[in-house]
Amino acid sequence: MQEFLQEESEIIEDLEIEMIDLDKGDSDSGKEEKNREEASKEEPFDLVKEILSLLGTMAIAAVTVFLLKEFVIINAYIPSGSMEYTIYPGDRIIGNRLAYLSEEPKRGDIVIFKYPDDETQLFVKRVIGLPGEQVRIEDAKIYIGEEQIALEEYYLKEEWTVANGPYTFEIPEGSYLVLGDNRNNSRDARYWENTYVEADEILGEAVFRYWPFDSIGMLK
């Protein structure tokens, strides 16, 4: 009899445990359902808020592009063949406005600058003469100062036969002499009324061609 009572007691205890577990399960289930209901509630669509957010993003993008174009890069389109074979008509290039913040243009640099005879136009040429130098052109050869050895110009398109000298340029301080690589078809310092490009007319160094895609690369 005692054994029977003990077994009954154990059964009752087991039932109580199961009942407690079931109650706990019901409670957890209720919480989960409540959480799902709360998570499923979405904020009502606010058209004005969405438009303002979009306008804000567009404004930030526009300001970023403006700052890049005004202070970091120059986007230039090449309309003529005056710099062939380095740059071709129809090419699109990028210039670096920061190139000359800490140093001066060097001989051989390709620069983007305001055309001295009409500063509303931008030109692209190569730096040949530096401030204070004398540059002579004789029989299609360029001589710097008293040098008797001609400047090596690997970048010329072809044999230079048009307007190939004699010329003598006395470059003022703070100015540069620039010529096109395609000397036979380049309107450059040899023809300009204002022969030299002043330092503050130079906007940056032409450094990269991004169009056409098959010619992407650095300029030199």
Task: Walk me through this protein's architecture.
The chain folds into 3 domains: 1-41; 43-71; 74-218, Umud Fragment, subunit A, CATH 2.10.109. 29% of the residues lie in helices and 25% in strands. The chain is built from 2 helices and 11 strands. It has helices at 2-40, 47-71; strands spanning 73-77, 92-96, 110-114, 122-129, 134-138, 141-144, 167-170, 175-179, 197-198, 202-211, 217-218. The strands form 2 sheets. Strands 1, 2, 3, 4, 8, 9, 10 and 11 form an 8-stranded antiparallel sheet that branches. Strand 3 (110-114) and strand 4 (122-129) form a beta hairpin. The relative contact order is 0.15.
Topology:
Layout: H1 2-40, H2 47-71, E1 73-77, E2 92-96, E3 110-114, E4 122-129, E5 134-138, E6 141-144, E7 167-170, E8 175-179, E9 197-198, E10 202-211, E11 217-218
Structural class: alpha+beta
Number of helical runs? Answer: 2
Which parts are unreliable, with pLDDT below 50 for 5 consecutive residues or more? 1-26
Strand count:
11
> Would you identify the CATH H-level superfamily of the largest domain?
Umud Fragment, subunit A
Main sheet makeup: 8 strands, antiparallel
CATH class of the largest domain: Mainly Beta
Mean pLDDT: 85
Q: Can you give the helix content as a percent range?
A: 25-40%
- How many whole angstroms does the radius of gyration measure? 38 Å
The SSE order reads HHEEEEEEEEEEE
Named at the architecture level, the CATH assignment of the largest domain is Ribbon
Keywords:
single chain, 220 residues, alpha+beta, Umud Fragment, subunit A, 3 domains, 8-stranded antiparallel β-sheet, 2 helices, 29% helix, disordered N terminus
